[in-house]
Each structure stands twice: as structure tokens, then as C-alpha cells.
């Protein structure tokens, strides 16, 4: 018992079934693929155009939220990128996209057929 709460590990260690939901692992993907400079440039310019902002403010490390993009903006950006590159990212493909570099890397990965 820790702070009045039993941990899941203790329940499992003693074979006791608990009503406490199991923690699930987040699916993570580690990829060494980095987008080509041309891909990154197109992604940056597309994002700037979609958000009606100066392209200079869109750097690889910039988060979409920092650019003022809400979830609808992000969906529209991803749709514009799909159209621009002639690829299909799919509904779940953009779930882990948070930065401009992430978006460019995903496009590169989809273009290569790895996604």
C-alpha cells in the first residue's frame, strides 16, 4: 500500500484480480528517417500557407500549437500535405505529429512506403 492506494503491481504479485484498469503501453515508433531538405521546405511552405503566417516562423522544431494551429487546422494541414505530395497518410497516421519536422518525416516515410 502506498499513500492509501494499492498498486497494480502488488495485486499482480499476489494473483489478486483488481477492478483497477491495467495501464496500457503507448505505441511508439522510432524512426531514423529524416526528411529530405526539399520535403521539409515544401512542408514548411504548405503549413505557412494553410495558417496564413510568414514562412520564416515555421521552423522544423516548431510545434503546430505554437503556430496557433488547433486540431482542425492540423487536419487541414495534413490533407494539404497529402494532396501536395500525392500520398495518403490515413486517419491514424498523423496521431503522433506535433512538430513541423515530424510532419516532414512522416511524409518522407509514406513516400518511401514504410508507413
TrEMBL record:
<dbReference type="Pfam" id="PF00550">
    <property type="entry name" value="PP-binding"/>
</dbReference>
<dbReference type="InterPro" id="IPR003231">
    <property type="entry name" value="ACP"/>
</dbReference>
<comment type="function">
    <text>Carrier of the growing fatty acid chain in fatty acid biosynthesis.</text>
</comment>
<keyword id="KW-0443">Lipid metabolism</keyword>
<dbReference type="GO" id="GO:0000036">
    <property type="term" value="F:acyl carrier activity"/>
</dbReference>
<keyword id="KW-0597">Phosphoprotein</keyword>
<keyword id="KW-0444">Lipid biosynthesis</keyword>
<keyword id="KW-0275">Fatty acid biosynthesis</keyword>
<dbReference type="InterPro" id="IPR044813">
    <property type="entry name" value="ACP_chloroplastic"/>
</dbReference>
<dbReference type="InterPro" id="IPR036736">
    <property type="entry name" value="ACP-like_sf"/>
</dbReference>
<protein>
    <recommendedName>
        <fullName>Acyl carrier protein</fullName>
    </recommendedName>
</protein>
<dbReference type="InterPro" id="IPR009081">
    <property type="entry name" value="PP-bd_ACP"/>
</dbReference>
<keyword id="KW-0276">Fatty acid metabolism</keyword>
<keyword id="KW-0596">Phosphopantetheine</keyword>
<comment type="similarity">
    <text>Belongs to the acyl carrier protein (ACP) family.</text>
</comment>
<feature type="domain" description="Carrier">
    <location>
        <begin position="37"/>
        <end position="111"/>
    </location>
</feature>
